[in-house]
Each structure stands twice: as structure tokens, then as C-alpha cells.
Amino acid sequence: MENYPVLIVVAPFISGLLAGLFVWIEKRLSYPIVLTGLFISAFSAIQVLIQVIGSGPIQYKLGGWSPPIGIEYRVDLLNAMVLCLVSGVAFLNLIASYRSAEKEIGDRTGSYYAVYNLFMTGLLGVTITGDLFNLYVLIEITSLTSYAQVAMGDRDRGPLASLNYVFIGVIGASFYLLGVGYLYMYTGSLNMADVAVLIKGSQGSSTVLVAFILCILGIWIKMALFPFHVWLPNAYTYSPVIFSRVVAPLMTKVMVYVMIRLMITVFGYDYIFNTLHLSDAVVWLATIAVLAGGVMALAQKNLKKMLCYIIVSEIGYMVGGAWMGNQLGMTGSILHILNDVLMTFALFLAVGNMVYRIEKVDITDLKGLFGKMPWTMGGFVLAAFSIIGVPPTCGFFSKWYLILGALEKGAYHFAAALIISSLICAVLFFKVFEICFFESGSPGHEHSSHGSVVIEEAPVSMLIISGLVSLSLIVAGCYSGTIVNTIILPFLK
Amino acid sequence: MRLLAFIIVTLTGAFLLYGTTEFPDWGDPNSPASLHVSNYYIEKTYEDTHAPNFVTAVVTDYRGFDTMFETAVIFTAGIGCFLLLRDFRGKKEHYYQHIPSGVILHVKDEKKLLPIGKEFGYMDKEWVPPDLINKTVCRILIPFIQIYALYVVAHGDYSPGGGFQGGVIFGSSLILLAISYDLKTLVERVKEKLLGIFAALGVLIYAGTGALCLLMGGNFLDYGKLAPLIPGHSGHIRALGMLVVEIGVGIAVMAVMTLIYINIVSEGRHDEGL
Fold first, then answer.
1. Are residues B74 and B106 in the same domain?
2. A141: which chain B residues are within 8 Å (Cβ-Cβ)?
3. Minimal Cα–Cα distance from A11 to chain B, Å?
4. In what order do the strands lie in the sheet with B120-122?
5. Is residue A452's pLDDT more than 70?
6. N or C, which terminus of chain B has less Cβ within 10 Å?
7. Are the C-beta atoms of B127 and B105 separated by less than 8 Å?
């Protein structure tokens, strides 16, 4: 069916609106409606991926107008892969987080699901579009819905975290919009492919230079690259579990995708690496981001916050790889988008299960958790190994490509930063394991004041998803070669 | 710190100005922005869509997909406001007015409720009687404002205007009702449930029109494919499609405006405000 590309975005959109409508009529219907929408979306995304692998990029004209008159969707191998990831994670998380949403959000879950689906619509739309302005509109939806969802988390600190996020997020989005405005002044077009053709000969133009820097800077702020990361840890830590489970794996990675899309499709390698010579500076910035993220993670006492700083560090990996200026680095960066989505999702699923049972996840609260929640901890250990980069989990392979890319370019500092960051992650996670495994949380000792709290394993629905995603880390690791050969290398050609 | 901020802002400004040095002159007919796609819109819009106002045609047809999501942004603002602010907890104290005598009662017992009807009515804590002149003028004005709003929505494809503007005007007429009388009057006449349904319904009309085009065998939002549904207007069908989505936008904007106003002035309690 030729309408699959638009269904990926429109199915969650319409189902979200229907959920918003049925909140007022029959509350219980919201959840199944939202779930159906996301299922259709995930199904269409897989169909599109198969189609793209089989017969090349797909173009979809919205309203029947051909670009640059109208808006087009253009799906190639890269965004087909990201679309599958986003819609799959959204669907699985909705199943896994049903119970925890009921617990945390209570009587407002109906309206909440509407916002959740609009958030997903935003991410999917950002990924699939071939139009610069359409991309901005969907970034706006993504941001607005995430501000609202962050503020619904922790009663005391959620709203403040959300407010900081609003201030910085708005600046990022405006930078991007300004950049698009400059490009429009110079070319008169908003379609990515069209703009790329029109700016091809104008290497020295000051307008294109300013547009390029503004767009990239805006996206960096949105993805929380190191000096612009200050909003991320609080916003992700204090949001409700159902939201932090999707925003942590998806938001930053989708923004990395947007950066790669701008670099490859709109401005072009030649402009960035041969005219502006930005590679060295940005790789240094990424090196600092990798190290700073790791060091700040070491200082955290709260498990969720620690993972957020690890995300900051992971963003450094992907930015560094993408700006390496060689094929190996870009391959590593794209492969790391896939792997990091899976790893972070697995980690946050496990942490969500812990939060569901013990509420506070300061590292000292985790004593004896291996005994009490063995399955959850199993998933957590697998995901942690993948973040550290232990083969055969998938994290190893993308790091391998990134290091090879760095060595080929001669960026030894970046390669060293990657290895140091792996060591830091190992220290971090083994510290957590040690507390969970060896220190027993003896009931009656600390909890005696308010009765002994019996911690049990999380509900089965949460465990199954968590287990599946953790196992997929090994599967993705084993098939890394296939993924690189069928998706990434043909795309980069 | 202040100095640092000043330096950063100055540098950014200088940087933005540097980018404008290669801009075409103001109003230059040969600038890229007025050569690349604008000509097509100016020359072909009427032929393509039968809508005389080509700004509307660009907004709701050529780039209608963006506008659908802009409407969704508004819906998100409304539902976000509801999620964060709405407070369903009851009040601790109640104020009543004894209608025949005009005496105000302050009931401090949370559980003691007086029957609302001919004798007693709810009352705000900081209630002041609405000014007679304001009340009368607004009562006369509001229907005209609303009719004007409907005109702006309906004439979106002919003259400047459209769903966003019309929706805002309609919403402001409802807000005027709340300001000139009191919030209670508005909430009684326009129920929260109705506003909530309208907010979602408006965007659904837009998205539903797009989905209908899918079902009729076209691309999403390709209004031309709706022609078989309205026989006899096949040339005009795109303009009609625009009208339908404009109405959707108008409904959504009206509902969201009012919803946000009610939630903010009453801190989410919907009982008394301003």
C-alpha cells in the first residue's frame, strides 16, 4: 500500500485526538485507542522498512502536491530504521508502563495518553519529513508535549525542571527556525532536497554559513550536547516513569538523526568538511562531552540521574562519530543510534520496574535487589554490559566502529575518551551491582520505623517487555554486521 | 555574569547581522524568495483550487499538513493546561447568596451544603456586583462578536481571515462574558466537558478530512479526491475542503482559548476567578 508512510505519523495522531475526545465520554476507551494507533504506526513502519530495503527510497506527496510546492515525506534507509525504532519503542512502552501510569498519574491517565501519542507523532514526523519547516512544526509538538509530561512527574521538582527545559528548549527551537528562515531567504525553498541543490554552488555565502550554524546549534541544544545539556538530567529524572522510559531513549537520538540528516542531505559533506573544516573542533567538543558526561555521572547518588548523565556522554559518542568526516565514523554513529535506543530503553525499563516497587531509586536504596527482583536486575545487568561495551552485546560493535573511525582520522583523543568513558561506566555499574548484590537490605533494620516493606518482583507485563528488550541487545549485537551491510552502508553510498 | 550575558548577546546579534549582508534588497522582485515557488502560487492558485485568497490556499492546501500540526500545537496547549492546572478537589468553605434578600452566607463547615435553586445561589469569595453598564454593553456586544467570528471563519478562503482568527474572536467573546459577568456564568453556559470535546473534535475534523481523502483513494489531505462526495462542485472541491478544515481549526481554537482562560484565572478550580 502506498499510504504506509503517512499512516506512520497520522495513526498515532488521530488515535491521540480520539483519546482526548473519549476522555470526556468513556474514559476506559482511551487506552485501547491509543494502543491501536501505535500498533498501526509500528506495523506501517516495518512495512516501509521492508519496502525501502527492497526497492529504494519512497517519496510521499502530502495533499498530492509535488515538492517544492507542497510538503513531501521522503523515506530512505536511515529514517526507515529510526521510524521502526521510535514506533516500536512507543508501542512496547505503552504496554510495559500501563500499571505504572495508573499508579503515578491516577485519574488523569486518559488525557495523559492523548499527550503521549502527540509526543510520538512529533518524533515520528520529525524523522520522516523531507521538509525543513514541517520538521520545525513537529519539533514544536514534541517539545510542548514533553514540557507538559515532565511537569506531571515529581510533585515538587517536576514543574521547576520543566520550566528550565522550556527556557532552553525554546531557545533551541528558535535557533533552528531562524536558520530555516535564513535558508529560505537565500533559496526560496523549504524542501530539503531542493535546498541542497540550490545552495550547492554557494560555498562562500555568509547567509548559508549563518543558517548552517544556527540550525546545527539549535539541534545541539535540543539533543543536549555537552555545554547545552543542563536541562536534561533534571527533566528526565523528575518526569513520570512512563515518559522517562520513552524520552530518554528516543528524544536525543531522534535529534542526532536530524543532525545527520541536515549534514548529509541539506548541507552536504563537502561544505562541512572541505569548505568549513569544522571536523576537528567538533570532535574535540564531542570528546569533552563524552568525558564530562562520565565524570558528572560518577558524582550522582540517584540512579535515574546517573543514567541521564550517561546519556549526555553517549550523545558525545554519536556527535563525534558523525563529525569524524569518514565513513567508519558515520557508520558507528548511525549504528550507535540504533544501539543506544535499545540500551537506554532496556535500562529505563528496568529502572521503571524498580521505581514501581521501591519508589525512591537513590543508589543506597537498592540494597539486596538481586534477591528481590531477580528478573528486573537481569535485564539491568545486560543493558549495563551493553553500555559498558562488553561483546556480544550491541554496545560493543558501535563503539568498535567509532574507535576505528577515530583512528583512521587520527583523532586519538576521541578514541581515548571512548575507552575512558567505558571504564567509567564499568566503575559506575559495578558500584551499583555491588550494592544490589552484596549489601542485603535487611528488613526490620532500616524499615523498622514504618513496618517492614516487602519488595517483590514487578508485574509480569512489565517484566516480559523488559526481558525482551534486554535480549534484543544481544540479538542486535549478533546481527550488527547484517545491519551495517543492509542498512547503513547502502545509505552512505 | 551580566557582562558575560551582554557579550554573548552582542556577539550573537553581530553574527545574525553578518548573515544578512548577502540578503537581497527589501522588496526586491528578483530575490530568490519571490522567484522560486511564489510565482507558482500567485499564478496557479485559482486554477488549482478555486480559492481567490492564495494565502489561505498556501496555508490550508499546499502546506495544509503544517497547519494541521499547528492546530495540534494549540490542542496540546489546551490539554497541557488541563493536565497541569485542573484541580478537582472541593473547596473547604462555601459562600452562598440568599437570592431574595441578597444576603451573603459564609459556610465554614466543609460538609454542609445548601440546596442550589431559587433561594440560594453559589457566590464567589471576593464577589463584587457586576457593573450594570458593563453587563448591558457586553450582553449586546457578545452576539455580534460571535456572528463576526463566524463570518471570519466562513470567509477564510475569500478574504483575510480563517479558522485561527475566527476561533480567537469567538473565544474572546466567551471570555468577555466571564469578565463582564463572572466565571460562574460562563462555566454554567459552556460546560467544561463541551469545551474538552470541542478542542479534540476541531483537530479531528481537520485530520479526519485528510483521512477521508486517504479512504477515497488519494494522498493524505488531497481534497481533490473528495469530489464524488459532493456532486456538482468538482471544480470547487478544493476550496470546500479548505472551508471544512478552517471550521475545524475555528472550533479547536475557540475551545482551547476558553479552556486555558478558565483554568488559569481560577487556578484550575473552575469556581471563581478574577
1. no
2. 69, 72-73, 76
3. 10
4. B103-107, B94-98, B120-122
5. no
6. N
7. no
CB B193 within 8 A of CB B87: no
SS3 A420: helix
B245: in domain:
yes
How far is Cα A153 from Cα A470, in angstroms, rounded to an integer? 26
**DSSP tag of A302:** B
Boundary of a domain, candidates B123, B142, B173: B123
ipTM over 0.95: no
pLDDT value at position A446? 47
* Percent of chain A topping pLDDT 90: 70
* Cα–Cα distance, A293 to A421 (Å, whole number): 9
What residues pair up with B103 in beta bridges, in sequence order?
Answer: B98
C-alpha span between A39 and A161 (Å, rounded): 31
Q: Return the minimum-mean-pLDDT range out of A46-60, A399-413, A428-442, B49-63.
A: A428-442
Residues in chain A: 493
Q: Which residues in A lie closer than 8 A to residue B219 (C-beta atoms)? A: 3, 6, 60-64
Contacting residues of B for A188, CB less than 8 Å apart: 31-38
Instruction: Write out the three cell numbers for A9.
Output: 505519523
Q: Is residue B21 part of a domain?
A: no
Judged by a CB distance cut-off of 8 A, whether residue B9 touches chain A is no
Please state the domain extents for chain A: 278-493
Within this chain, do residues B163 and B231 fall inside the same structural domain, yes or no? Answer: yes
Q: What is the pLDDT of residues B6-53, one digit of tens each?
A: 999 999 999 999 988 888 888 788 888 888 888 888 888 888 888 888
Strand, helix or coil for residue A129: strand
Instruction: Give B140-178 pLDDT, tens digit per residue.
Output: 999 999 999 999 998 877 777 788 999 999 999 999 999
- Are B118 and B135 in a shared domain? no
Q: B20–A207: do the CB atoms touch at under 8 Å?
A: yes
Residues of B in contact with A64 (CB under 8 A): 218-219, 222, 224-225
**What CA–CA distances, in Å, run from A368 to A364, A395, A450?**
10, 27, 19
Same domain, B164 and B209: yes
Chain A: residue whose CA lies nearest to B59 = A70
CB pairs under 8 A between A and B: 163
Asked if B15's CB is within 8 angstroms of A185's CB, the reply is no
Is residue B254 assigned to a domain?
Answer: yes
Angle among Cα A396, A399, A400 to the nearest 5 degrees reads 85
Alpha helices in A262-373 (DSSP H): 269, 279-298, 303-322, 327-358, 369-372
Distance, CA of A288 to CA of A290 (rounded, Å): 5
pTM of the model as a whole = 0.93
Cα distance between residue A406 and residue A402, in whole Å: 6
Could you tell me the pLDDT band of residue A363, with boundaries at 50, 70 and 90?
confident
* ω into A391 cis (within 30 of 0): no
Instruction: Count structural domains, chain B.
Output: 2
Name the residue range of residue B155's domain: 31-87+130-265
Taking the Cβ of residue B224 and every Cβ of chain A, the question of whether any pair is shorter than 8 Å is answered with yes
Average pLDDT value for residue range A24-52: 93
